[in-house]
Amino acid sequence: MSGCLGGGTPSGGVIPDLAGATTADAIAVLQDTGFTHIRIQQKPSATVRPQAVITTDPPAHARVLYSQTVTVVVSSGPIQVR
Q1: Under 8 Å CB-to-CB from 20, ≥6 apart: which residues?
Q2: pTM given for the model
Q3: What is the pLDDT of residues 6-39, one digit of tens each?
């Protein structure tokens, strides 16, 4: 059945677990997996090193269409207090 997410059809796939990967590696993995709409969002984090992936939206292991936008949330490092 065309357009269905089940059974490994070409229209969708599973979001890989990218936590801790570099931004460049995360983009490469998503593109290699078949996702074409990738957005990067930076977020401060005291526990995740700068430029490392914190999470994705949709989350890891979610089944989604390849045409859906995947947001990769990347650490900008700890909040800088002035």
Answers
A1: 48, 52, 53
A2: 0.83
A3: 444 569 999 999 999 999 999 999 999 999 999 9
Cα–Cα separations (whole angstroms), residue 42 to 5, 12, 13, 73: 29, 26, 24, 6
Query: Domain 12-75 falls in which CATH fold?
Result: Trypsin Inhibitor V; Chain A (3.30.10)
Residue 29 burial (10 A CB sphere; 0-12, 13-18, 19+): middle
In 3D space, the residue among 80, 18, 14 whose CA is nearest the CA of residue 55 turns out to be 18
Query: Where are any strands of DSSP class E within the chain?
Result: 12-14, 37-43, 53-57, 63-65, 69-75
